[in-house]
Structure formats: C-alpha cells, structure tokens
Amino acid sequence: MPVTTAMSESTSIHSATLVSLESGIDLGPGLYFSDGKRKVDYILCYKYKKRRASKSRLSIASNGSIPAPLPGRWDNDPDAGAGEPEESKLTEEEKALMRDEFEAGLVEAGLQLEREKERSNGLGFIRLHIPWSILSREAELQKIKVPVKKVSVYIYKCLNLRSHLANRSTLCFDRKYFGEQIGLYFAWLGVYTQLLIPPSVLGIIVFLYGIFTVDANVPSQETCNESLNITMCPLCDGVCDYWQLSTVCSLARASYLFDNGATVLFMNLWYTAACFLEHWKRRQMCLKHAWDLTSLEDEEVVFQEPESLDIEDHLSGYLINVSTLLFLVFVTFSAVFGVAVYRICMLSVWSMNPDPEAKASVRMTVTTTGIVLNMLVVLVLEEVYGAIAVWLTELELPKTKEEFEERLIFKSFFLKSMNAFAPIFYVAFFKGRFAGRPGDYVYVFGDYRMEECAPPGCLIELCIQLSMIMLGKQLIQNNVFEVLIPYVLVLLQNYDDLNENEEKRPKQQFHKDFVLEPFEGVTPEYMEMIIQYGFVSLFVASFPLAPAFALLNNVIEIRLDAGKFVTEIRRPDAVRCKGIGIWYNILCGISKFSVITNAFVISFTSEFVPRMVYQYMYSTNGTMTGYTDHSLSYFNVSNFPPGTAPANATVSMCRYKDYRDPPWGPDAYTFSKQYWSILAAKLAFVIFFQVF
C-alpha cells in the first residue's frame, strides 16, 4: 500500500515537521527519533481509557480534517451512546491488536516507527519517519518535479519556517508549508485586497464631496427651524401627533454625505469588478505555471460506485432538499418581516411616551434597535444554515468528494447570502413602497400601519443597516469565532494538563499541537470573504465607505489568518489544486448582479434622480431651492378615517412624502405628473446604467 494511502485511512494526524524534509530546517527539540538523526515526519496519536476496557481510537493528528474512517473497524466511539454497531464495542485487547495490525502495515510500506511513553491523560504518540527512498518512490508516482541541483534556503536569523509564517506571511512559504490550496486562498485574498484600493479611494472622495458641499445643498438645523415650518402627517394612528419637518434636518444632512451628486461615480463599479476578475485569472495562470500545476490531473475520491445507486436512491434526497430550501427561504423572509413588525409596534408604543425629547427621537430609536436585532438574527441563522447545508448535501448522496464540496458550497452560499442580504434588500427596495398614503394606509394585523421611510428617504437607513451588519458580522466572526474561542479552548486545555497528577515531563511540540482545533478547510475563509464582497459590490452606492472598511478588515484578516493557521489550528495536509474552484463562478455572478442592484439603488432608493429632475425641469433658477416643498404632497386632515387622527389637534392640512395631486384638485390624491416624470427618469437611468 502506498504511504499516502496508508496515512489517509486513519482518523486524525499532525504533521508539524513535514517541511523539514523540503528545507532542512530544525523545527525544535523533540522532533527527532532517539538517535537524533532521523526526523519525525508524522505523529500518530491514539486514545485509550484508564481503569476500564474501552476502545482506543487511533487517529492521525496531521491534517485536523475529518476524513472517512476505515469501514467496519474503528469508525465509531463506544461511548457515543446506545444503538452503536457491534464493531465499536470491542475490548481494549482487541483494539490493541487492531493498532498493531495498522502499525505493521505502515512498517511493511517502508515507514519507520518509534513509540513514545504513554501519558496518564489517556494519549499515546508514535513517531513516524519516512526514508528518502520511500519519498522518492511516491514523488515518482505522483509526478512531482524536483530541482536538478541543491537549492539553498535562507532563513532569517535561524527562525524556523513556522515562526516566520506566524510573524510575516509570504505567499511562497504559504504554499510550501500548507500546500497549493491554502496558498491559492492567500493569493486570491491578496489580489482582492489590492483591488479594493480604487473603490476605497472613490468612496472617500464621495464622502468628502458630501462634507464640503452639504452646507450649500442642505440647510442647517438653525435654518430649518426658521424656514421649514412644515407640519407633517402623524407616523401612526391615534397616538402619534403631527410633527415638524425641521426635526429631521440633521438626518437629511447625514443622508447627503452618502447620497450626493458624486454618487453617480459608482457607475464605474462594474469595470472595477471586471478588472478584479480578469486580474485574478491572470494571477492564477501565473501561479499555476510557477507551482507546476498546469499538468495536474484531478483525482476524484469516489464515495459511491456509479452503479450502486439508482434514481430512487437520489429522489428522496432531492425532494427533501427542495422542500427544506423553500422552507428556509420562508424562515429568512419571516425573520425580516418579524423585525419590521417589531419596528411598527415599537413606533406606536414609544410614541405614547409623554416625554417630548423621547418622542422627538422615536424614529431613530426604533431604527437603531431594529438594525441591532436584525444583526443578531443574521448571526444566529448563519450558524444554523451552515449545519443544515451539510445535512442536505449528505442526503443527496454525491458520488465524489469534489461533487460533495461543490454542492455544499453552493447551498451554504445560497442560504448564508440570502440571510445576510435579505434585510438590506427589504430596506432598499420594499420599505415604504407599499405603505399607502394618509387616509388610505396599508395595515398589518388589522391595526398597525406598514412602516414608511423618513422624508430624506430610506438611503440613510440602508447605509446604517449595511454598515452595522457588515461591520458587526466581521468583528464578531473575526474576533470571537476565529480568535477568541480557539484561544480560550487552548487555555482550558493547558489548564487541565497542569492539574494532572502525572510525572512532570517536558511537552514536545506534537503534544501542544494535538490540543489545537482541527482544520475545517478553506471553505469558511472563502465564505466570509465572498459575503463581504457581496456587501461591497451589491450595495456600494448606498454606503460608499464600504470598500474602505473592507480594505481595513482584510489587512487585519490576513494577519489573523496567518496566525490562526500556524498557531491555533492543526496543520492541514497539503492539497494540490488548480484554482479556487466554484468560488470564481460565484464571484462572476455577484459582479454581474451588482450592476443591477446599484442601478436600482441609485434610481429608486436615493434622491439622486428626483433631485436631477427637479433641478433641470421644475426649478425656476436651476438650483435646488424649493426641492423639499416640491417633494411633499398635501393632505386634508378631515379625510382621516374616524379614530385615526390625533386628538385635540387644530391642524387643517398636513404634508407627506409623495408626488400626488392636492385634495383641492379634480383628481385628489392620485399620482401627479411629476410622479410619472420622475418614474420615467428612473427607468431611463437604470437602462443607461446597464448599457454604458
């Protein structure tokens, strides 16, 4: 049996010294056999139970992944509970015989073994050394090319390669130490981070343009209090009072920082995304040539023989997949609707507060708490959807490992992206669109009005929603899930080891490596960055600073990933691959869809098109003077249905955000000519955005 096959059929390994074969680097004491000459290439670890007979689970601690166990032998834990197969209920002596048989197979394959003294914590370690002749044979079988002459390797001040990676990640060392799969991930992450620089600069320009021109286009709070003495219709029925438009002047000024004349510069976003994809294709081809991957043949790991399953075996899995995915779509949109209902109810409840200051800030309070609630729901559902995606993929019974991974990635991305983007899509394209008008509102649950956008528009809320979910998700995932939790687990393991009543012996490196978290693959890393790419590309017109925040996050992410891969998780087995796989197709889909979403955000969510139409069609002097009054319609308060108007009010007329004919016109409250002109301009802008 080849060496690689013998190793892959075990259950868990750590290959902390595999690099020493390539570069002759000393990775520290204890990583040699007792003769001090033969280097340790792999460490076999097995667990045994004290004071009672039980299974000693043999594991290879090198890759930290969860490969398939040997069929019919040690693939189950006897302590897992009732209903386990009979093979898992073997005695300690029988397990020892199985270990001896496995070790004999390794020796027969040409490997050299040296057993370490068993420790009282139930762990046993066996050191493995692979002679040069065996390595040469396997390299020949795998067609691995080697240099014809010895190449000297320069190591900074005797730092070993592992320490160098932890302090200064380089692409060459990533590939040599971790393999091509992880090397390509860091290469792609580097290209993506570099291509974030142009849109980051553009977003900062848009933001600075808004700061410098806000005074000329949006009145200050003092000016609003003097000139915008406009009475607005109540935000809810019965308990809400009429309110003054001047109270939202600060909100309008904040909205202008992101929604101004320079926002249209993001029409060039498509070219940036296209350049990113083309640049990565060229970079990937260069790496394939440099890493000798052009002639690499895909090796399929077959789970099921093609003739072993028929259509009936797959049909039930497909039906469960479709029905479950539809149900999860319903759950996602129900969560978004639930948060919207929360905002609607809280607006009515908090509007009854007798405190005038609390009433003045009720809209911002409801919006902020709703966004925080949305973020928490997104984080919880993301973890749930990840587990469900694995279960659904297993039900499909894919034939090969590659097919399994592609289906799992597609399902995970579909569910997690839908979960992350659904609240933002709701605010961008649905909130306030179906709320109705005063006197003819749309209600949910009979008594609660559908929520509306503020007079400055929904863009500022979309901006806050995007920034909170994007930044909150990245901070919590990066700092808590990826850094803090693994660090705490290692501390707890070290604390347990200190409390053991065993003979104190110095720990070798493989003892420390064994307690590290297992490697779960690069899929979570890609998923995190692809979701971020969706935030940056799909809604960048609503939050121009998103690329800058993503750039800052990625600079930190590269360092966190480098430290995590070296110090916090078990070293993975090197995997050779030609590219990033299905992730490239997902990136292409997001890039194309982003053109559509940004076109509709600029046209229908922002105030860019209505302002342009007013300035060039309705303004008497070609300026924005009078735009606020032009964008508000009139409503006669006597037309309120009984019980919905505020009590003890002396107002005869109120205003609301819409383009409708006044109550004294022949077609009262119908859409005005201005409405149809602006709608035509919005649709024309979308077409222009798509074509050019």
TrEMBL record:
Annotated GO MF terms: intracellularly calcium-gated chloride channel activity; protein dimerization activity
Task: Give the span(s) annotated as Disordered.
Answer: 69-91
Which UniProt keywords are listed?
Cell membrane, Glycoprotein, Membrane, Transmembrane, Transmembrane helix
**Residue ranges of domain Anoctamin transmembrane in the record:** 175-690
The way it spans or sits in the membrane comes to:
Multi-pass membrane protein
Question: Which family, according to the similarity comment?
Answer: Belongs to the anoctamin family.
Q: What is this protein called?
A: Anoctamin
What organism does the UniProt record list as the source? Sphaeramia orbicularis
What is the taxonomic lineage of the source species?
Answer: Eukaryota, Metazoa, Chordata, Craniata, Vertebrata
